[in-house]
Design goal:
This protein is an alpha/beta fold. Helix content is 40%, strand content 23%. The strands form two sheets. The chain has a six-stranded mixed β-sheet, with helices on both faces. Strands 2-1-4-5 form a four-stranded antiparallel β-sheet, with helices on one face.
């Protein structure tokens, strides 16, 4: 059994079946890609995994625990974190505040400690700031810690969003088109960064991405969906040579 197990999941919106009988298995430490043409259902899969939607049929388990009816906040506490296709930073907050806010989700202090602002609360706040600064250093953002997030260049905002997701101490990191809008050099740097993050934090990574250079350069296993159904599963080389994948991307129907 993998760390994340999706079995025969289906979700419908009215008469539209957005995802049909989808199964996935992610082992601990995997670099796993989920790809497909526009409208294939990739972001819907992310929303199923993180509790935004609940499947009409099938099951989703994280380390043997069912996620089917859990709220997104509960799933996040169990170890699932994500970024978004459209960047969703707290734009008016500083870079450091964005990461600290996410880090507070793992805090141990209670309301009483916060109200009294006692030694325990002060020590934990100091540790949260140290942890946040360490993440900013990993993403080369420590020199911008006091800048307002919206003022960062686009590529830096992407990196900040990943840093913020890591601040929740996830076991599985879902990256939704992290290379979108990046230039070739930024995309290359992102490939190296994803591998470093996986190794340093002992993570499992699920990547949705249209940039095939990034997908083929990072992922060790790739699943292709079209119209909500799996059409291929295999190594990057197997996926590149698969006639169903070629047809789906080139519009051969």
């Amino acid at each position: 059994m993998g760390l994340l197990e999706v079995r025969d999941c289906t979700i419908r919106f009215g008469g539209l079946t957005a995802v049909k009988s989808l199964s996935m298995s992610l082992e601990k430490g995997a670099l796993y890609g989920l790809i497909g043409p526009n409208g294939a259902g990739k972001t819907t899969v992310f929303n199923l995994l993180t509790g935004v939607y609940h499947p009409n049929e099938g099951s989703i388990e994280l380390d043997g625990k069912s996620l089917n009816k859990l709220k997104p906040s509960r799933i996040a506490r169990l170890g699932m974190s994500r970024t978004f296709q459209n960047i969703r930073l707290f734009q008016s907050m500083t870079v450091l505040e964005n990461v600290k806010l996410a880090r507070h989700g793992a805090r141990k202090q209670n309301v009483w400690d916060a109200t009294l602002h006692n030694r325990k609360q002060r020590d934990e706040e100091a540790q949260i700031e140290r942890d946040a600064m360490e993440l900013l250093e990993i993403f080369n953002l420590e020199g911008r810690a006091d800048e307002i997030a919206i003022n960062l260049p686009y590529g830096s905002q992407r990196r900040l969003e990943i840093a913020r997701a890591l601040a929740t101490d996830p076991r599985i990191l879902l990256l939704d088109e992290p290379a979108a809008g990046m230039n070739p050099q930024e995309s290359l740097d992102l490939m190296h960064l994803i591998r470093r993050v996986r190794d340093r934090f002992d993570l499992t990574v699920l990547l949705v991405e249209h940039n095939m250079r990034v997908v083929m350069g990072v992922c060790e296993r790739i699943q292709v969906i079209d119209y909500g159904e799996t059409i291929a599963l295999g190594s990057p080389r197997e996926i590149q040579d698969n006639p169903k994948v070629i047809e789906a991307y080139l519009g051969g129907a």
